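Q: I'm writing a short explainer about Iron reductase domain protein for a general audience and would like to include a description of its predicted shape. Could you first generate the structure from this sequence?
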Amino acid sequence: MYILKFLGALALATSVLAQNVTYCPGGGVCYAVNIPAPTAENGSGDIYFQISGPSTLSWIALGQGSQMKGSNIFMIYADAAGTNVTLSPRLGTGNSQPSADTTAEVTLLDGSGISNSMMVANVRCSNCASWSGGSMDFTDTASEWIWAYKTGSAASSDSVSASVSQHTAYDSTTLNLQNAAGGDSSNPFTTKVTSTSSSSSSSSSSTSSSSSSSNSSDTSASDGGGGGTPADVNMVIMAHAVLAPVAFVLLFPMGAMIIRLLSFKGVVWLHAGWMVTTYVIVLAALGMGVWIAVVTQQLDTYHSIIGLVIVVALLAQPVSGMTHHLLYKRTGGANIATYPHIWWGRAIVTLGIINGGFGLQLSANTTKGEVAYAIFASVMWVLWMVVIVFCFAKSRRTAEEKAIYTVEMRNENSSTERMRYPASISAGQPHSRELLW
Ligand code: HEM
Ligand SMILES: *[C@@H]1O[C@H](CO)[C@@H](O)[C@H](O)[C@H]1NC(C)=O
Ligand SMILES: *[C@@H]1O[C@H](CO)[C@@H](O)[C@H](O)[C@H]1NC(C)=O
Ligand SMILES: *[C@@H]1O[C@H](CO)[C@@H](O)[C@H](O)[C@H]1NC(C)=O
Ligand SMILES: *[C@@H]1O[C@H](CO)[C@@H](O)[C@H](O)[C@H]1NC(C)=O
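A: Of course. Here's the predicted structure. Afterward I'll give you a sentence or two in plain language.
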């Protein structure tokens, strides 16, 4: 009982002293709201919020409301100089780009800017209690907000009505504004940030609650959605964006070409080892990808879904490859596993190459990267297809020259395990280069 009472009192004290509610949906993006004590008391007045996130994002937004339509949206993006952010108040009209709202009384405050690959906007809003489309009770324990951000190239505009493209991550959330109430600072978020070095600057503003309000806050309302700092996320994105393309564009096609082009005994094991090693690299890239997708809430994007499907689909390859090999050893010919292995492998690897493009679309800062990838990937893929067609034509020619389509017999001289056209036994030729397809 006593403990419960104590906890209750503590909770009450916290909410009285609290100065911000913070919500971090992931991807290094965070939103914080402060309702100054006077505003909380009389239900209207200035409120403060902070929007922060990696500067690798195209834009970040926070809105009052439960859906885009009728919401009071505040979007930030890099300005033309790239050193500060442009604060763009917008009114949501539906599920389309919200248009600039000229009636919003918002001010970008000190402490805003872009540095250390983070963009931060400290904002004061003087008319956020109501707007064309809705209103907000600043004492609501479950006030409704929406948030969104877009990965991709920086908007780089000083215009509040810059045209931006659709979010890559978004959702709605509720914030307990009772826990955000407190303080009477004209810029609560810089107060926090600089309080260690210059606490005299503004923490002295008196509130009814306490003089120590500057370091009390509500953290229970903050959401644990995202782990990892933006720097972590960016590093993992970088590693993922190197490993996965190297595997799909370079190593898988090379491993496929190896078995087509090389002819020596045991080439099958070079192929098998090469492909399985590449698959392990893909698993590592997938692990990173899943982490990134969870942290930045992008598991529901095409790139993430296709990526997961591909990695599962590729599991069939070692199985079908091994089955082909064992049956081939017994019969010396194409078997039930041969064509599934060849064509499933080609299809899934190709899908993986394409999916790399989707990934770049999700996160590339420049279209240059996408173009470079498209060119490199196409060259590699075309080369692979040329090798396939070339080897196919060659094997067919050989077969036609011999003009014999007899039953394939196991050929002990065959140095590789590629399938071949049935060749004349009487010709007595090793037909290791004659492919079945
Ligand atoms: C993740 C693992 C693997 C992948 C992605 C993969 C992929 C492929 C692909 C795409 C081809 C067709 C090559 C072409 O484009 O012409 C191929 C051929 C082949 N693979 Fe694999 N492979 C894998 C593992 C294995 C394993 C473990 C074995 C055997 C132990 C194996 C044995 C073969 C053989 C013998 C062929 C030639 C089939 C023929 O032409 O008759 N593969 N593989
Ligand atoms: C809100 O309350 C403060 C003091 O608590 C007062 O100074 C201010 O005038 C009030 N504002 C309005 C709009 O009532
Ligand atoms: C960004 O703009 C705001 C508002 O003009 C200003 O207070 C802040 O100091 C600027 N930040 C930087 C880094 O220039
Ligand atoms: C909100 O309060 C917490 C706890 O004091 C603090 O760590 C955090 O920096 C504050 N958020 C902002 C944006 O100032
Ligand atoms: C404020 O912060 C200081 C130093 O971090 C700490 O010693 C003190 O207990 C804090 N006060 C409250 C009320 O949390």
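A: For your explainer, you could say: The chain has two domains: 21-180, 231-394.
Q: Perfect, that's easy to follow.
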